[in-house]
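Ops channel
N.P.: pipeline sanity check, posting one input/output pair.
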């Protein structure tokens, strides 16, 4: 009993320090991932994302198609309305303190929309440890990504919803590191 209490006294503060750290993680913007993720032989994640649908998700909200959809919902400017931004940008609704200097919603659905805010994990050391499995992802707010995470946006709340087939959708945005 005493031992358990003593353990708790040590474990709890350590756990909350980690939580405080990951809670402090900031969104840095996709450009900060570019320098290490654009080489062809490592899968060119930057190039694939830039050319894919997610990088233009914010610009889409300025199109005539978006204005028409928005009008029907009584929204004048889709590119500044939460009912559209919530799925068309990274870090929608995050408090200013979570956004690093230089971060801009204009990047659309960026790397961090799926992988978590990057300020704590974007260093070479942490990234290598994450890939090697020796770094606790949660402690640095890192998310590896999976099929379920897509459904946060690819769902019926989207005014243009198309039934979502993960395998097909993933094939379109796949950015694996070649073995
Ligand atoms: C300083 C260089 C560097 C930066 C900056 C960087 N990464 Fe990485 N990242 C790496 C390296 C090295 C790996 C290990 C994989 C490899 O060998 O290519 C990696 C691996 C990853 C992985 C796979 C991890 C795993 O579990 O296998 C993801 C996802 C990732 N990075 C996302 C990002 C995102 C998102 C950003 C920007 C917020 C970013 N990286 C910024 C160097 C970097
Ligand atoms: C933060 C919200 C968000 C998340 C999370 C998200 N997407 Fe998307 N996705 C969008 C938006 C918005 C578009 C439309 C972009 C445009 O056309 O401007 C889109 C478009 C796409 C498209 C092209 C259009 C289509 O439906 O065929 C594919 C493919 C896609 N996403 C795959 C995925 C996959 C796979 C995942 C999960 C790994 C995912 N998305 C996660 C918001 C998201
Ligand atoms: C629940 C998340 C979500 C919300 C909210 C949302 N979108 Fe989207 N949007 C998506 C996704 C995901 C796609 C990709 C196609 C699909 O499955 O709907 C998309 C695609 C689009 C497209 C491109 C359609 C195409 O087929 O190329 C337009 C235009 C668009 N959205 C406008 C809007 C507008 C305007 C609003 C606000 C009134 C809005 N969206 C709100 C998730 C969302
Ligand atoms: C729409 C969501 C989404 C976006 C945007 C996104 N990723 Fe990913 N990423 C994923 C998913 C899902 C996986 C697959 C995880 C798996 O295979 O277990 C992944 C895997 C990776 C991997 C590891 C690949 C491997 O073979 O191990 C790296 C590296 C990576 N992403 C980097 C990035 C970078 C850098 C960006 C931005 C330039 C980015 N991702 C944008 C969802 C996304």
């Amino acid at each position: 009993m005493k031992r358990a209490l003593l353990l708790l006294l040590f474990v709890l503060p350590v756990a909350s320090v980690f939580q405080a750290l990951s809670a402090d993680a900031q969104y840095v913007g996709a450009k900060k991932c570019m320098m290490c993720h654009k080489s062809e032989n490592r899968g060119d994640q930057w190039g694939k994302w830039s050319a894919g649908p997610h990088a233009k998700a914010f610009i889409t909200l300025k199109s005539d198609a978006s204005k028409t959809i928005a009008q029907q919902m009584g929204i004048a400017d889709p590119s500044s309305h939460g009912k559209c931004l919530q799925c068309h940008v990274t870090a929608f609704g995050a408090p200013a303190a979570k956004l690093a200097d230089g971060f801009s919603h204009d990047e659309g659905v960026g790397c961090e929309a799926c992988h978590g805010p990057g300020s704590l994990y974007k260093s070479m050391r942490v990234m290598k440890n994450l890939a090697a499995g020796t770094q606790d992802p949660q402690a640095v707010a890192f998310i590896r990504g999976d099929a379920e995470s897509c459904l946060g946006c690819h769902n019926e709340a989207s005014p243009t919803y198309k039934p979502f087939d993960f395998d097909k959708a993933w094939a379109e945005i796949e950015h694996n590191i070649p073995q």
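N.P.: looks fine end to end. The chain has a mean pLDDT of 91.
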